[in-house]
Write a structure and sequence with these properties.
single chain, Serine Threonine Protein Phosphatase 5, Tetratricopeptide repeat, mainly alpha, 15 helices, 70% helix, globular
């Protein structure tokens, strides 16, 4: 049997398993959290993670699952993808398909932030116009601050001017991602905590309701004794 034929059968098998696991009763609940219900099966993340461990890593399967357009198949695509094989073109193509915040965030935190292109794309996408494409830039910043333990502080300092500049974007999924990125940067160590606090204070001074929301959301978390104690560990 040819490799292409084998891969086609594997994709069909995975999609069939996803559909068998579907729980339509959960879709309305997901929608109440702002998750797009179109092409959504209602499968939990723990179940998808188990499937990811079973079928991955497999870059060809990842690409094929993405092309199905199914909500959960696209999250699973990120879980089985191979970061070293992901191209900038694939990343740009995928973010244009983002239609829900959870797909955006799961792709960024499970695949894109481990690619060699993550830092460049974080900067590039944060200047995009469309809501989920722009969110992807800030989600990547947050995920890099969360996962890239060896990155020098200077790389995160370079994100601060963009976070401040874009903090006045009042769209819900953008402003929340700006806050997420700045909060994660502020949790890395005491130096970046102090820099993130100063950044949030500058954001608070911007004449914008969205900026004030971002600043308050950031400061109430990264100025807490619990967070500051954790940055010294």
């Amino acid at each position: 049997m040819s490799t292409d034929r084998t891969k086609t059968l594997l994709v069909a098998e995975v999609v069939e398993r996803l559909k068998a696991l579907a729980d339509p009763g959960k879709v309305d609940g997901m929608a109440s959290f702002g998750i797009n219900s179109e092409n959504t099966l209602g499968i939990s993340m723990p179940v998808l993670r188990r499937l990811g461990e079973e079928y991955g890593p497999d870059q060809e399967l990842s690409l094929a699952l993405w092309d199905t357009g199914l909500h959960e198949a696209r999250i699973l695509a990120a879980l089985v993808g191979e970061p070293e094989k992901v191209t900038p073109g694939q990343m740009d193509a995928w973010i244009e398909d983002f239609d829900s915040w959870d797909v955006c965030d799961q792709v960024c935190q499970n695949l894109f932030d481990r690619t060699p292109h993550a830092w460049e794309k974080a900067r590039e996408w944060s200047g995009r116009k469309r809501e989920f494409e722009k969110r992807a830039g800030f989600a990547l910043m947050a995920c890099l601050a969360w996962h890239d333990k060896d990155a020098p502080d200077e790389r995160f300092l370079a994100f601060l001017p963009r976070l401040e500049h874009e903090s006045d974007d009042g769209r819900n999924y953008v402003k929340k991602a700006v806050s997420w990125a700045l909060r994660q940067i502020g949790k890395r160590n005491l130096f970046l905590n102090a820099e993130a606090i100063r950044s949030a204070e500058r954001i608070a001074a911007i004449d914008s309701a969205a900026s004030r929301w971002v600043a308050n959301d950031v400061l109430k978390e990264i100025t807490s004794d619990k967070v500051r104690a954790r940055t010294t560990e």
